Amino acid sequence: MMNLFRYLILCIGLLMPFLHGHAQNLPVKGHIYDSQTRQPLAGVILFSANNQQLTKSDARGFFEIAAVQPDNKIRAVLAGYKTQSIKINTAENELNVQLEADGLSLNEVRIAGYNNANKTNKETAGAVALLTAKDISRGSGLSLQPALNAIPGVRMDQSTLSEARISIRGNGVRAAYGIRSVKIYVNEIPVTEADGTTRIEALDVNSIGRAEIIKGPASSIYGAGTAGVINFQLQRAPYQEQSLEASGLAGSYGLHRLAATYRSGGDKLNSYVSYGWQEYEGYRAHSNDMRRFLTGNFQLFPSDKRIITLMLNRTTQHSQIPGSLTAAQVAADPLQANAANLDKQAGRYQTWTRIGLGQQYRFNDQFSNSTSVFTYFYDLDHPLPYAYIRNFYQSYGGRTRFTYDPGFSILPSRFTLGAEFNEGLTKGTQYVNNQGKEGTVNANIDYQNRQYSLFYQSETTLAPQTTLTLGLSYNSLRYDVKDYLKQNQSGVKKFNPQATPRIALSHTFSEALSLHASVSSGFSPPSGSEIKNVDGSINPVLQAEKAINYELNAKGNLLQSRLAYDLALFKMDMKGELIAQSVQQGITVYNNAGKTSHNGVELALSYQLLKATDEAEIINLRPFVALTYSDFKFKDYKTLNAQGEVTASYDGNKLTGIAPWVMNAGIDLETRTGIYFYGNYFYSDRLPLNDGNTAYNAAYQVLNAKIGYKKQLGNCLELNVYAGLDNIGNKNYSSIVSLNAIGYGGAQPPYFNPSPKRNGYGGLNLKYLF
Fold this sequence. Notes:
Residues 121-228 form the TonB-dependent receptor plug domain. The protein is 6% helix and 57% strand. It is built from 6 helices and 43 strands. It starts with a helix and ends with a strand. The model is unreliable at 7-23 (pLDDT under 50). The protein has a 22-stranded antiparallel β-barrel. A 5-stranded mixed sheet has the order 8-15-16-12-13. The chain is mainly beta and 770 residues long. A hairpin with a 7-residue loop joins strand 37 (687-688) and strand 38.
C-alpha cells in the first residue's frame, strides 16, 4: 500500500509540469465589436496581465492569441473606448468581445451612421454628434431634452412629458405636433412612420445606450429628411457581466419611477431586459403623465460570420395635455391649464408595441450584408379641444444593406447598396368631444401610406489621408386615403420620386485637424395630416419641401489630445417650404409657398483639465461648451388663403421659432472614491413666435446640477445614489411654444407652455453582480 501511495505521488509530481504547461498553452481567438453598433473594431491592442502586447485586431475585428493561461485576464485597449478586462476560461476560447464607447473621447469613437469603413467621428465627413448612456444620465433620465440640447444645432423643446418637438438646424421646429423632417431609428429599425412623422414617447430614456445624430440632409443612406437622422441604440449588457439591478427615483410634482433591469453579456448571447413604471403628477394642472415600459434587446453570435439581434418594446402612456396659454394667463397663473383643454379633458392614451429582428452576415472578407425586418403598431385614444380621435396604426417593413470591398490596389473603394421599405395603415375615427367623451361620429378615414428608398454610397481613398464619398438615394411615397363618410374625398396622393445626391471630401492632416467639405440634398414630404384642402379633399398640387446643403467641418484634438473640438459652418437653402394657414379651430391647410435660408455656425468644445493617473483622486474634470449661431431668414415666403390668394408676405423676416444664439455649457467631475458632480447651464436667445415677427418668446437661462456617489460594495453589489436640482434660479420660461398661434374670437394668441420652476429629484440604483 505504501509503495502504491508513493507511486501515485510520483505520477502526480511528473504530471504537474505537463498540466502547468498545458494551461499556459490555451489558444484564444475571437472578434471585437462596438457594443452598441455591432461594428467590428480594427486596431484593438490586447495586453497580457503583465502589460505585454499580445496581438492586435484586424479589419474584421478578428484576433488570435497562441497561448493564454486559463483564469487569467487580458486587456483590450482602443482609443475612444473604455479599456475592457477579459477573463479567459477553458469553457470558451472563441470570444465575442464588446467594447463600450468612452464618453471622454467621443472624437475617437467609430461612427456607424454613414456606414463608414471603421472611421472615427473625427475622420467622418459630416456633422455627427454622439451621445452615450452617461450623457443621458447627467440629468434625471426622464427626458432626452438635456442631452440633445447639449449638441450644437439640435433643439428639443418640452414643458410637460406629453409634448415634445425635436428640430435640427431649424428643420422640424414648425411641426404642429410630434416630430417631422427628422428621421429616427432604433437599432437600425425606423421609428419614423411612413408619412414622415415620429413620436418618441414609446422610448424609455433609461434604456438608450447610445445615439448618433447626423445633422442636415443625410440622403445617401437614409432617404427623405431635410433635418437629419437620429440613430438610437438600446442598451446592451457590459461584456462578461451578469447582473440584476433595481432602481428608484422620486422628485417634485409627484414624480415616481421604479425599474428592474437584467443584464447578461456573454460571448454567445448578450441580453438586456428592463421593466419600468413611471408617474408624474405634473407641474401644471391637468398634466399627469403615466408610463409603463418593457424593453428587451438581445444579441446572438451563432457563428463567426453571423450576428442576430432581436428587439422587443411595449410601452403604455396615459398623458393629460394642459394646452397653451396667453401671455396674460401666464402672468396670472402659469400653473393653470387651457380652459378648452380642461373642459374637453384633452389627453393622449396609447399603447405601443414594436418588434424588430436583424442579422449581420459576413460572406467573406470583402462582402457583407445587414438586414432587419420589423412590425410596429399602437392604439390611440386622443381627446382634443376640437375633436375626440381614436386611431389604430400598424406598420411593417424592412431595411437591407450590402457592402462590398473589391480590394482595388489603385484607388481603394468600398461600395454600399441598400433599400428600405415601410408601409403603415391608420384606421381612424373622429367624434365630437363632449367633455372628454365620444359624441357623434364626424369622420371615419383609413390612411394607407407606403414609402420606399433605394440608396447607394461609395468611399474611395484618393490618398492615404484623403477620402471621397459619393452617395445617391431614390425615394418614393404614396398616400391612399379612404373616407367612408365622404367617399368623394377618397383618393391617392403619390409624390414624384426624388433622387437626392451627396458628395463629400475628407482629409486628415494630423490628430489636430481633419477637414471635411460636403454638398448634399434632401426633401421632406408633407405628412398625411397636411395633404388636405379646407373641405377635406386631397390637395393634388402639394409637393415635398426640398433643400440643398453646403457644409465645411473641422474636427480634431489639441493640447496632447485633452482639448477636443468640432466646428461646422453650413448654408442650407430650402424651397417649397410648407406654410400652415389656420382656417378655423381644428382646420389647417398647407401650401408650398416658402423659401428660407439657413446659415449657421456650430462649435463643440470639451477639455480634460486633469489627466487621470493611478494615484490621482480626481479621475475626470471636464468642462465643455456647445455654441450655436443661426442666421435663418425667409427669402420668399407668402401666406395663402384657402383659395390660393396671397394674404401676407414675410420676405426678409427672421425664421419663426429659431433663437439666433443658443449656448449649453457644463462641467463633469468624477473622483476615485465614487463621488461625482454634473453641472449644466443652458441659454436660449429670444425667438420670434410668428412669421410676422410681431411677438417674441423672451430669452431665458436655466441652471441644473446633479451630485451622486457610486461605489462597489464587495464583489457582488454596486451602489449609485444621487440627487439633482433643475432650474436652480427658479426662472419663468416656456421651452416649447405654439408658433403662429391664433386667438379666436378676439382673444390673445396662446403661445406659451410654461416650464417647471425650481424642482428636485433623488434616486437609488442597486446592482447585484452574479
